[in-house]
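Dear colleagues,

I hope this message finds you well. In preparation for our joint manuscript, I am sending the monodehydroascorbate reductase (NADH) (Citrullus colocynthis) sequence together with its predicted structure, so that both groups work from identical material. I would be grateful if you could confirm receipt.
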Amino acid sequence: MADKTFKYVIVGGGVAAGYAAREFVKQGLNAGELAIISKEAVAPYERPALSKAYLFPESPARLPGFHVCVGSGGERLLPEWYKEKGIELILSTEIIEANLSAKTLRSASGKIFKYQSLIIATGSTVIKLSDFGVQGADAKNIFYLREIDDADQLVEAIKTKKNGKVVVVGGGYIGLELGAALRINNFEVSMVYPEPWCMPRLFTPEIAAFYEGYYAKKGITIIKGTVAVGFTVDAKGEVKEVKLKDGRVLEADIVVVGVGARPLTTLFKGQVIEEKGGIKTDGFFKTSVPDVYAVGDVATFPLKLYNELRRVEHVDHSRKSAEQAVKAIKASEEGKAIEEYDYLPYFYSRSFDLSWQFYGDNVGDAVLFGDNSPESASHKFGSYWIKDGKVVGAFLESGSPEENKAIAKVARIQPSVQNSDLLLKEGISFASKV
Ligand code: FDA
Ligand code: NAD
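The corresponding structure tokens are as follows:
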């Protein structure tokens, strides 16, 4: 098998890869210079769609509708686009070995790829219940969601188990988005998670109370403070029940698990410096190895605004880090300098008719504003976080585009506040005046 050589190789064909390809073209790329090698069978797409519109019972999103870069209002890069630009999309190809000193990658079928510069964009994989030895966790109809193949299997089960019972394990992003999606598909949904409130990574108890109340109103049963410890499986190998640590047993036709993600760095272990679970980079996404960059979920990068190293598992950063790395590669070739990455964390989620955005850092004291009652007609409420007398983070449910822009500005500028009563009183209008 002949080796293939490229000037640039991106390993991983997810969100970051797609945005990097677009940036390469913007910066000037010759045909044959760039290859994207992806385990998935399809060109880069906007992964967030998989837990939202992909699962709608009516007019669900399907490819090619959500290839990158539509998620940020950009051009949709169809497979033909890569062809036209002379970018080789090497799909259904898993890299199983990387040798960063020899600058080679080897695929599962034994193909060798050589590169001058490498961008690592392997993203994350799901943490599985079988990783902690939960009994019966390999049963049929227990689903995880990361890639389009996973979403297709879930869609199939939604059809076969119509109007059945779903148990969602996990109260994070996947749990909340899939709990809603399955309810919309008319399943009887129970959600189980160990913490005292949902999404504790970001939500305060007051924020969580709104979503928990709203989900309950939609008919979802929430069971907190316990975990799934085993599954009952029938003769066909299909899941039938979920056994909880507190002794309760829940019937289930489908189980959806979202108990966290793990960055895919294993290929590079011992070859690059790692930090906080990811591959350590500088503000240009350069790793400790020359000509090797890491972007998206796998990168632990300097978050300039907070003067610390962080890893971020969200789509906005995957897009922006990819663009930054490509700009840095191109600038270094031309002997030019570019600005260091100066990222403002931005996360969002959507479920039912709800939609929130968060900017900044959720540290310090939280001040809730607006009406967080699940019964409220507008669902408009939010929270500021104050640290050392400055507003460092802001969350808003059901904000208008202008209001969302305003909270982003607050989190970036970090205005001083004398007392939290002002934020409580002014609510969103505080942000709108900044
Ligand atoms: P990404 O996971 O997109 O891509 C990695 C690619 O590398 C995959 O194609 C994978 O197959 C491939 N790969 C891995 N190892 C390989 C190997 N050895 N060889 C070849 N290919 C390999 N964020 C947000 O801000 N808002 C949201 O609403 C959502 N919603 C959402 C829904 C769902 C279902 C998921 C799973 C995730 C989200 N996210 C999100 C998170 C967001 O999608 C995520 O942070 C980005 O996709 C990360 O982009 P990357 O390109 O780093 O990885
Ligand atoms: P997560 O970290 O958001 O949530 C994990 C949750 O798992 C925890 O909150 C906890 O409730 C629960 N948990 C942990 N151990 C458990 C156990 N043994 N039993 C039951 N529950 C347990 O992770 P996720 O929701 O799985 O999301 C996976 C990845 O996808 C993350 O990188 C996330 O950022 C990304 N994602 C993001 C979005 C978004 O930004 N809107 C949407 C979907 C997915």
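For the figure legend, we might mention the following. The chain has a mean pLDDT of 97. The radius of gyration is 23 Å.

With kind regards,
E.M.
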